[in-house]
Write a structure and sequence with these properties.
158 residues, alpha/beta, Ribosomal Protein L15, Chain: K, domain 2, three-stranded parallel β-sheet
Length: 158
């Protein structure tokens, strides 16, 4: 088989309807549009959402309210029980180590929340931390460093 032997499957294609090419073609004069009426005119016809005059579905549904703040920062939550389970005593918990452990993505802003208990002293560097989580970490002998969050690194949200 060569390229010039290729043909579409039998019955998969049909010839285009050529309208307005004279009366002998059978599709001349009004070009299959009929004599008069809405659909015979150029630009005629009804919108896709038209339902015969009843209130269309697109108008019956409630409209989305509010707006999306494109500057909103969405933090990835990490709880203390996860940190206690994954990291060893005295470990430094950074954004890279959290991503390597599979708790967050590489460039995501992180917030540590206080669910669970922590029994090991950990040195934690994150963007945000809840007050309860900070108390539990410092009570266990650990330390907390708050990282600045650069807006330029964020992906644009739409």
């Amino acid at each position: 088989m060569k390229l010039h032997d290729l043909r579409p499957a039998e019955g998969s294609t049909k010839k285009r309807k050529r309208v307005g090419r004279g009366t002998g073609s059978g599709k001349g004069k009004t070009s299959t549009r009929g004599i008069k009426g809405q659909n015979s005119r150029s630009g005629g016809g009804v919108p896709l959402t038209f339902e015969g005059g009843q209130l269309p579905l697109v108008k019956r549904l409630p409209k989305m309210r509010g707006f999306n703040n494109k500057f909103k920062v969405v933090y990835t939550p990490v709880n203390l029980d996860s940190l206690d389970r994954i990291f060893d005593s005295g470990a430094s918990v950074s954004l890279e180590s959290l991503a390597a452990a599979g708790l967050t993505g590489a460039e995501e802003p992180v917030v540590v929340l206080g669910r669970g208990e922590i029994s090991k002293p950990l040195s934690i560097q994150v963007h945000r931390i809840s007050a309860g989580a900070r108390e539990k970490i410092e009570a266990a002998g650990g330390s907390v460093e708050i990282l600045p969050y650069e807006v330029d690194k964020r992906l644009p949200r739409s």
